[in-house]
């Protein structure tokens, strides 16, 4: 076994690999860019090595710097993780030439399966079913348009080297083909250095089901069952689970056999994933093979009890795979939810900034921990894989994935309960996240009833967003109680250092010279509405004076978590817990049915409102303007693309919120814009 390896990656996957290496007694070397000098993976590794600037092209995508670092530190192997260089055949080849083991498949296997057009040809010859489409070399726009017409709409445009949701668009009608093709080609060129595309027939009611495979250097190949990855946004997975409810044993065996055939065809070694699309008729087709460790590999680990990273390392070291297919058993149901720094209300655009507050269940430990708080969850487990901590900066340079939350239980129903509980114990301040949106999905009746197809998020987006924004009165009340407790703690601290600690001026209990008055807290919600909450406090009991009837609640505080005991029990449907984080005047309040964001405001504060009919079209993140599609004076329709930005290797369109007129375009193609910069002056049509 290796004595020391270099991890050619960052964030949560680097930490995940470090964890297994520590258990196996393998030394680890982390690499870091200028943006990651204080990152968690650098702190946790045994050694570290600086490799360049924040931009991936100056650091994490530099083969020469990775090899130099490995040689300098005396590493015998390099684990690429996922993303960056993990599916770069030239990297695997240069590792081999340098006498360093690449923890992954051969360069030849990566090349065969890395290009979608070639991979489909190889699979077709091997008898694995493929989606009908165009996979040819000719890439002129005229040729692609003609082929699209032959296939028919809707169809998919995919980058030949695409992955991770980048370089992919669904085109529903002919007139949208040109813009979609341009976006895919641009994304593909920037992310993968190759603008070639393929076209595929769009499968009706598509379900994304993949099989984990493992192959050693002695010709042994096994599968580790399936993962259903159908719940997606922007063609990128956000929820994965196993087993799939749509597979009976007969179809499961057919798909598993096809996955093993695919791996054997390319003499695959290491961990890989064969991805299929399955339609409403239960027919399945090969989509692609990911020749690396997947983001969602913990789902498989939870149902099998196996450590896939350990198996990768043992295979790379030349050990024989002692797992036969019959020895691989699964138990229960596992679900993973990806926690992203992004804003679902702006089309899931990434969010950047400093993590001012961060709370995970079980103190964010990256290991299984029993879920507490309900008898029904006693046999459920939650695992958090993360690469960030409070105070870290979420940068524009890298993927906005912050953490993965994985739960395991005996049934899918109990796994969903465990996930709901875990999400209610998770909060972030400082950047926008999809946490509330994830809660909406796990509370959705259709999702709870059965697994969904890949159109689930798009088809229910409005209702999922509305559900996320509903805030019950009791959440306002208890958030105000939290503010009172924070103020009280600060007053006691001030009094401790005061010349007169007993002075009433150092108290926060609404003391007045003529008697007591209610404690008042003013909270502004996401709509900009300000609510005054009036409470009367006596020790740990609080009377809510806003309520139409007399309501009181006893509160016990454990860190940021408030345990609640209402005077009338739970007959009003009030929650029993509220997790509250605050930073300066910002608050997030989290409960089992969602979360709410507030700003605490001075009641005398006045904010000028934008005149009706005016819209501020601002940059949702820092990035580059790459296309301006309108000019001053032009009339546009609601939903029309006005301008396209590029950030985090993906294109993001700024669209017209209503029918209106473009008054002025403030930036040109190539301009760098900062977060919040006004891009276009726009007025609504009467």
UniProtKB/TrEMBL annotation:
One Pfam family, short name: Biotin_carb_N
Co-factor(s): biotin
Domain ATP-grasp: 120-317
Keywords: ATP-binding, Biotin, Ligase, Mitochondrion, Nucleotide-binding, Transit peptide
Annotated protein name in UniProt: Methylcrotonoyl-CoA carboxylase
GO molecular function, one term: ATP binding
Cell location: Mitochondrion matrix
Main localization category: mitochondrion
SMART domains the UniProt entry points to: Biotin_carb_C
Residue stretches making up the Biotin carboxylation domain: 1-462
GO cellular component: mitochondrial matrix
Sequence ranges assigned to domain Lipoyl-binding in this UniProt record: 608-683
Organism: marine metagenome
Signal peptide interval: none
């Amino acid at each position: 076994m290796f004595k020391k390896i270099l991890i050619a990656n960052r964030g949560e996957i680097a930490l995940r690999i470090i964890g297994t290496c520590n258990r196996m007694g393998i030394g680890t070397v982390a690499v870091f860019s200028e943006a990651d000098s204080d990152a968690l993976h650098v702190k946790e590794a045994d050694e570290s090595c600086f490799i360049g600037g924040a931009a991936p092209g100056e650091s994490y995508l530099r083969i020469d710097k990775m090899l130099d670092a490995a040689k300098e530190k005396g590493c015998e192997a390099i684990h690429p993780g996922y993303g960056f260089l993990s599916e770069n055949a030239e990297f695997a080849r240069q590792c081999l030439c340098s006498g360093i083991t690449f923890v992954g498949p051969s360069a030849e296997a990566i090349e065969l399966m890395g290009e979608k057009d070639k991979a489909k040809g190889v699979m077709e010859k091997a008898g694995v079913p493929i989606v009908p489409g165009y996979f040819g070399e000719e890439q002129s726009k005229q040729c692609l348009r003609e082929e699209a017409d032959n296939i028919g709409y809707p169809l998919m445009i995919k980058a030949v080297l695409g992955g991770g949701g980048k370089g992919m668009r669904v085109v529903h009608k002919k007139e949208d083909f040109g813009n979609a093709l341009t976006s895919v080609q641009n994304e593909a060129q920037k992310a993968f250095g190759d603008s070639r595309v393929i076209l595929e027939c769009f499968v009706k009611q598509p379900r994304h089901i993949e099989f984990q495979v493992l192959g050693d250097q002695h010709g042994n190949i096994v599968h580790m069952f399936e993962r259903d990855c159908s719940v997606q946004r922007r063609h990128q997975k956000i929820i994965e689970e196993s087993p799939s409810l749509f597979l009976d044993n007969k179809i499961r065996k057919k798909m598993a056999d096809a996955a093993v055939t695919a791996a054997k065809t390319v003499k695959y070694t290491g961990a890989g994933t064969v991805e299929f699309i399955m339609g409403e008729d239960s027919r399945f087709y090969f989509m692609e093979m990911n020749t690396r460790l997947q983001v969602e590999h913990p789902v498989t680990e939870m149902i099998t009890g196996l450590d896939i990273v350990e198996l990768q390392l043992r295979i790379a070291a030349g050990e024989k795979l002692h797992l036969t297919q019959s020895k691989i058993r699964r138990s229960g149901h596992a679900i993973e939810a990806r926690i992203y720094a992004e804003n679902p209300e702006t089309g899931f655009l990434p969010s950047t900034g400093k993590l001012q507050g961060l709370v995970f269940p079980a103190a964010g430990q990256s290991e299984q921990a029993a879920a507490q708080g309900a008898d029904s969850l006693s046999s459920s487990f939650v695992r958090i894989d993360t690469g960030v901590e409070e105070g870290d900066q979420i940068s524009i340079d890298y993927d906005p994935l912050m953490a993965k939350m994985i739960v395991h239980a005996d049934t899918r129903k109990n796994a969903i309960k465990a996930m709901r509980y875990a999400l209610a114990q998770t909060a972030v301040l400082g950047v926008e996240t999809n946490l509330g949106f994830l809660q909406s999905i796990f509370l959705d009746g259709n999702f709870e009833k059965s697994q969904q197809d890949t159109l689930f998020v798009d088809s229910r987006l409005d209702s999922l967003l509305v559900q996320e924004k509903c805030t019950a009165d009791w959440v306002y009340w208890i958030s105000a109680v939290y503010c009172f407790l924070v103020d009280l703690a600060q007053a006691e601290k001030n009094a401790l250092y005061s010349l007169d600690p007993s002075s009433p001026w150092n108290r926060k209990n609404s003391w007045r010279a003529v008697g007591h008055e209610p404690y008042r807290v003013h909270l502004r919600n996401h709509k900009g509405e300000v609510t005054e909450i009036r409470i009367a406090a006596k020790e740990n009991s609080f009377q809510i004076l806003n309520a139409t009837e007399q309501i009181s609640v006893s509160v016990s505080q454990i860190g940021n978590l408030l345990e609640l005991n209402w005077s009338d029990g739970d007959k009003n449907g009030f929650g029993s817990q509220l997790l509250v984080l605050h930073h300066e005047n910002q608050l997030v309040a989290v409960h089992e049915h969602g979360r709410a964001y507030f700003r605490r405001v001075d009641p005398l504060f006045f904010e000028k409102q934008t005149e009706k009919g005016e819209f501020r079209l601002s940059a949702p993140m820092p990035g580059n303007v790459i296309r301006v599609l309108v000019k001053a004076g032009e009339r546009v329709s609601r939903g029309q693309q006005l301008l396209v930005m590029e950030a985090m290797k993906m294109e993001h369109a700024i669209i017209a919120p209503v029918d209106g007129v473009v008054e002025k375009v403030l930036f040109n193609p190539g301009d760098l814009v900062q977060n919040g910069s006004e891009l276009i002056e726009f007025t609504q049509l009467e």
